[in-house]
Amino acid sequence: LAVPGAGRWAGPAVLAAALAALGLDAARAGRNFAAGVAGRSNADAAGAWIEANLPAGAAIGLFTPAPMADRFPPIPFSRYALAFVRQPVSAADPKRLPRWFVTRPDWPAGDGFDAAYAPVAVFDALGGERDAFTAANFPVAVYERKLIP
């Protein structure tokens, strides 16, 4: 690996930096997989919180027509009414939005979501540390609709 005009050691330095970055990504992925063990993952904690805090029959909003395994926790689906909310949220009638919403905390960006919902519980054991290759131990946030004037 040669870097023109950068001297004799530039190639090995660039290679070492690339290998170090790859090693850090692999370590990050390993921590996410270890933290995502069944029963201890962010999704499991969020699912338990939902079951303990949301009443049976509550409507829970989500951005996809069906719960996606990389952004929705395991819950007894027969206990809740899942409501697909099309984006942008700002285009929806605020009175028709579900009281609760579940998604990744890094997912809702703009489109009126922040004006309509506030986070009430965030499950992110690794503090936002994500690996770029997997959905292992993805973060989960539960939001509640803000009061409508």
List strands and helices in order, with pairings:
Blueprint (H helix, E strand, L loop, with lengths): L9 H26 L6 H12 L5 E4 L18 E4 L15 E4 L9 H4 E7 L16 E6 L4
Parallel strand pairs: 1-2, 1-3
Antiparallel strand pairs: 3-5, 4-5
Structural write-up:
- With 149 residues, the protein is of the alpha/beta class.
- The protein has helices spanning 10-35, 42-53, 113-116, and strands at residues 59-62, 81-84, 100-103, 117-123, 140-145.
- A five-stranded mixed sheet has the order 2-1-3-5-4.
Features:
five-stranded mixed β-sheet, 149 residues, elongated, alpha/beta
Describe, in short, the structure shown:
This protein has 149 residues and is an alpha/beta fold. It has helices spanning 10-35, 42-53, 113-116, and strands spanning 59-62, 81-84, 100-103, 117-123, 140-145.
